[in-house]
Amino acid sequence: MLTIAHTPSDGTTVDGTSKGDGSGEIVKQHGFRWGRTQGVWFLRNTRGATARQHTIDALASDRRAAGFDVQIEVDNGTAEQREAAYVAARSHRAESLAGRSEHLAERARTEHAQSNAIVEHIPLGQPVLVGHHSQRRHERDLDRSRAAMTRSVQASNASQAAAHVARSAQADVARREDPAFIGRRIADREREIRELQRNLDSSQDNTKPQVLAWREGLTARLAQARDELALWQRKLEETGARIYTREDIKAGDYVRIRHGWCEVARANPKTVSCHVGMPRPLTYAYTEIKDHRPKQSAAT
Q: pTM for the full model?
């Protein structure tokens, strides 16, 4: 029995394959990788996310066509469970990569020291004495020293790369508490909800089987999007940050957005347009505003 499962905490996994049954290559073709720690096949970037149903269905169809019994178990959880699982996965990745970076940095230091130790008995600037009894040892030591130095550089580069990805994962977790980031998630969910509702309204009289199945998927996604919207709205309230509106901002005021201050060109219902040295004003959501100076106080 081949089991394709999805949960917010584990992501999408495949269990029940056996060596030599031909499943491995097929599973890999659908984007899965073998997890030595978990002992199952897993689909990357699915922890803390909703299931990629099209991938699951395609894999199940392929395996059933080959005569396998396939069981599908999908639990998308709530928006809060998915967000908690995503943060936990990113935090674990950041911690693991930070540890790997330190391990590689230590290896680089060790290889560097070994490279120097191998040739420390050779006087600085001493050339290889061709024909001398020391020639072969001298050349061998130089080769060993270069090899150790190469390994040191490779380990150092790998350490820096791991540290960079670890910092990115840490920043990803931290920004999820930023009102500007949360505001963008709210805007995204509101836009998606409107689009889903329009599609459902425009197809409500169509009773074709394929349309009904499509509407079922839209309805499920609409419920998820509303749940996610409610989550981000709660998180925005929990930040305690002041959220400016059109009533607070007037043309000529100054607002601090991201890394600097800019003059307000126009206050729109949901966004503010600012002069930032470009030919035209740029538009930002009100949740991007970190501080505000009215026109009168800015002039003084």
A: 0.83
